[in-house]
Design brief:
The chain is mainly α. Helices cover 55% and strands 7% of the residues. A hairpin with a 2-residue loop joins strand 1 and strand 2.
Length: 120
């Protein structure tokens, strides 16, 4: 399972060789985090591919959140390359986290806090 999640996170994040060790650690942390939020009596296997995708999305989001601005763009002859800015990476990370939450909603205890109308 861990290897599948790492491969998915690698694909989603576009991580390079130099980020492999960090991504592996982030995948392990994401797996532990999602397992800890599962409803009582459920296992990661009960969630099917939703668990794999959610853990991969979470790890990829964590990796993307750690990056700052790199060279915004460069051109060499006819080839032009544009990197994501920190703001674009943050937006992508937030989107991945939302998708992970949606995938795991049927299997987990809600992670957020909701303050509902309390009469005083």
């Amino acid at each position: 399972m861990e290897q599948t999640i790492r491969k998915l996170a690698e694909t989603v994040s576009g991580a390079g060789e130099d980020e492999a060790a960090l991504l592996e650690a982030l995948c392990g942390a994401a797996i532990r985090r999602w397992r800890g939020r599962l409803r009582e009596g459920l296992t990661a296997e009960d969630c099917g591919t939703a668990f794999h995708c959610a853990a991969a999305f979470t790890a990829a989001a964590d990796l993307l959140s750690g990056g700052g601005d790199s060279a915004a763009s460069f051109t060499a002859g006819q080839v032009s390359v544009k990197a994501r800015t920190a703001a674009e990476s943050a937006a992508l990370a937030a989107s991945l986290r939302r998708a992970a939450e949606e995938l795991m909603a049927p299997y987990t205890v809600p992670g957020g806090f909701a303050f509902l109308g309390v009469r005083g």
